[in-house]
């Protein structure tokens, strides 16, 4: 499989686009890997999930060979902690974190959500909202993650918005996928897999826009000196770091992460709702709530 060399030693692995009429529900496991599709696990729960996603995409699925841009001024780092146990608070994260059972580590994570149509609370300032899934970052110095960036600026009578998918293995910078269209209101499905859970230095991410059918996948590596810890899995709305400083969080309304599940190296499923909720604070005041709605549903709610 071809590789693209990016800055700072990052290499991205590309997959061969599937042929016309390719059916992931009946294809061999070797062909799934060749064409950048998630493997079909034997567990009935995962088989049903696989059928549901690709059944929904029938007739509109189209694979996009991704192109990239590194945004060195943006990063999506670990949680900036304010508390522990039960309801947690953070100055950059809102959502939920689940923890791996004793003696195990996470090897993949998934989630579905609708991309928010963000607003600027005040004029003449950029506001940001990164919505993503990830492994690590709550108690470790790395984060393996992928999601959607939403940015907004309101000046006078005009509003500017930027919306795009990205991936990152912190402490590397954000890598934008420049040719996979995503708009506010689109439903996205993301799956992030590592090769061996704890100790992994590579990962594969699968992006699917369930609204348009546009999908892509790629492999990427950890930055030098980093490897997966696998202790935590997250479903997060974040105020990212921009230009070396904490950004201001946009008014994102609410984001519901559904099918919030992570799987350990022993194939144990851990639901996002089984962990802790995280509230985002600014100057000690809560501006976004993380709520555990159901075992596999996490809500991030902007409260201003």
Mean pLDDT: 94
- In CATH, the topology is named Jelly Rolls
Q: CATH architecture, please?
A: Sandwich
Count helical runs. 2
Please report the first level of CATH classification, the CATH class.
Mainly Beta
As a percent range, the share of helical residues equals: under 10%
Unreliable spans are: none
As a percent range, the share of strand residues is over 45%
The count of β-strands is: 23
For the biggest sheet, the summary is: 20 strands, mixed
Evaluate the radius of gyration.
18 Å
The sequence of SSEs as H and E is: EEHHEEEEEEEEEEEEEEEEEEEEE
Overall structural domain count: 1
Task: Give the termini distance in whole angstroms.
Answer: 46 Å
Alpha-beta content class: mainly beta
Question: Rough shape?
Answer: globular
Give the CATH H-level superfamily: Peptidase G1
Which helices and strands appear, and what pairs or packs with what?
Blueprint: E1 3-5, E2 11-13, H1 29-34, H2 44-56, E3 62-63, E4 68-71, E5 74-75, E6 88-90, E7 93-99, E8 106-114, E9 126-135, E10 143-155, E11 158-170, E12 174-177, E13 187-194, E14 202-209, E15 214-221, E16 232-238, E17 241-242, E18 245-246, E19 254-264, E20 269-271, E21 276-282, E22 285-294, E23 297-302
What does the model show?
With 304 residues, this protein is mainly β. It has a single domain, classed as Peptidase G1 (Jelly Rolls, Sandwich), CATH 2.60.120.700. Helices cover 6% and strands 48% of the residues. The chain contains two helices and 23 strands. The strands form two sheets. It has a 20-stranded mixed beta sheet that branches. A three-stranded antiparallel beta sheet has the order 5-17-18, with no helix packed on it. The longest helix is centred in the N-terminal third of the chain and has 13 residues, at 44-56. The radius of gyration is 18 Å and the shape is globular. The mean pLDDT is 94.
């Amino acid at each position: 499989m071809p590789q693209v060399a990016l800055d700072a030693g990052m290499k991205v692995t590309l997959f061969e686009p599937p042929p016309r009429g390719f059916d992931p529900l009946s294809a061999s496991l070797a062909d799934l890997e060749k064409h950048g599709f998630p493997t079909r696990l034997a567990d009935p729960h995962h088989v049903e999930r696989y059928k549901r996603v690709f059944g929904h995409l029938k007739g509109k699925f189209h694979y996009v060979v991704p192109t990239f841009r590194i945004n060195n001024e943006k990063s999506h780092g670990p949680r900036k902690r304010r508390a522990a146990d039960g309801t947690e608070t953070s100055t950059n994260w809102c959502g939920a974190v689940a923890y791996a059972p004793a003696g195990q580590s996470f090897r993949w994570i998934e989630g579905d959500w609708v991309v928010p149509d963000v607003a600027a609370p005040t004029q003449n300032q950029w506001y940001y909202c990164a919505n993503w899934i990830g492994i690590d970052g709550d108690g470790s110095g790395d984060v393996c993650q992928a999601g959607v960036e939403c940015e907004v600026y309101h000046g006078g009578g005009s509003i500017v918005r930027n919306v795009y998918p990205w991936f990152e293995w912190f402490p590397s910078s954000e890598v934008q996928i420049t040719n996979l269209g995503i708009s506010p209101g689109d439903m996205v499905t993301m799956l992030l897999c590592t090769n061996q859970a704890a100790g992994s230095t590579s990962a594969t991410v699968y992006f699917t826009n369930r609204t348009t059918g546009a999908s892509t996948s790629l492999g990427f590596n950890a930055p030098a000196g980093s490897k997966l810890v696998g202790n935590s899995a997250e479903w997060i709305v974040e105020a990212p770091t921009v230009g070396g400083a904490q950004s201001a969080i946009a008014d994102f309304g609410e984001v519901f992460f559904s099918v919030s599940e992570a799987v350990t190296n022993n194939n144990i499923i851990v639901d996002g709702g089984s962990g802790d909720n995280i509230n985002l604070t600014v100057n000690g005041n809560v501006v976004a709530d993380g709520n555990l709605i159901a075992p596999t549903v996490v809500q991030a709610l902007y409260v201003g």
